[in-house]
Amino acid sequence: MDYQGFxxxxxxxxxxxxxxxxxxxxxxVAGRFPQAIWHAPxxxxxxxxxxxxxxxxxxxxxxVIAAMxxxxxxxxxxxxxxxxxxxxxxxxxxxxxxxxDLHAKEAALVFTSGYISNQTGISTIARLIxxxxxxxxxxxxxxMIEGVRxxxxxxxxxxxxxxxxxxxxxxxxxxxPKLIVxxxxxxxxxxxxxxxxMCDLAxxxxxxxxxxxxxxxxxxxxxxxxxxxxxxxxxxxxVIEGTLGKAFGVLGGYIAASxxxxxxxxxxxxxxxxxxxxxxxxxxxxxxxxxxxxRSGAEREGQQRQVARTKEALAAAGLPILPTETHIVPIMxxxxxxxxxxxxxxxxxxxxxxxxxxxxxVPRGTERLRITPSPLHDETAIAELTAxxxxxxxxxxxxxxxxxxxxx
Length: 408
What we know:
The protein is of the alpha/beta class.
């Protein structure tokens, strides 16, 4: 039996479909974001990163770094166990209090990643509701899909942001318990869900709501609570999920909810009970970032300004950007091989890193480069990006102008 052949064949299929992923060896340098060092095959080279999920550059903020370093010096590096076995450090308790306050909820619960908080949170919540039907947006993240699957509950998929279809499914479900799971900002197309309208339907048909805010926390709302914060809808959402690894610049995920929901997940969720807790230094750094962004709007304002300027520059150059109302700027390519070639040329010739987004992250034929401008991408960086993209589009023979996908 050629066991190694199974794996080799699987990898060969990915390469044939132009879906084999190659990781760039990048070294971030504190104080120089979005500049970084690419450890290229021919040696280290400076680059500009245009696709980071450290959306506000908080991963290099002095207060965040100081909180991590000071806590590690005082408390050591590891958590020492699960939350049940000696890992329930004071910094993680304080972090949960900060997150509950951020979202105006009674309690919050921290997980080791945003993926785990969705996978474990959704599956546990739904499993604890007898006869629960989960209604899930068609474009929900894989972590949410896995949470739905692992719950073992019946599910119904509604067309993306389609309120009529959601209402049809809710009406058909009758009086049984229902959980609507959806995102605020969808990370590939950069569009936003109609939160108040979703809540109207949930209230009308007696459903519970679960909102993923991972691509919005820190960046939207008067205190960075996300799109629900900006729209004044946090009190209408039953469970808000977020991440500490994007705009907050650290690591981890969480849910914020009523005390009963948070305690039930804490008590029943295998993905929480049986995994080592976040180290105290990580929790302290995350709490410092959350506290800072609650009181400072400068980072949010700076990001929105630079996002707008980036979109204007790319559109003026005739590049096929997908219109969005958020910080996510997709440039449509529509072919896996061309998308990878564009990413490679940007990095190797222009020192600009933007990873290719191919299937299964997006449907075949909608491959793209996804740009995420930060407050620290200045006018010079925007001009260099625009010129580089125009050069790459010309060399590869990709169409300029707003094509069909951009117009959609």
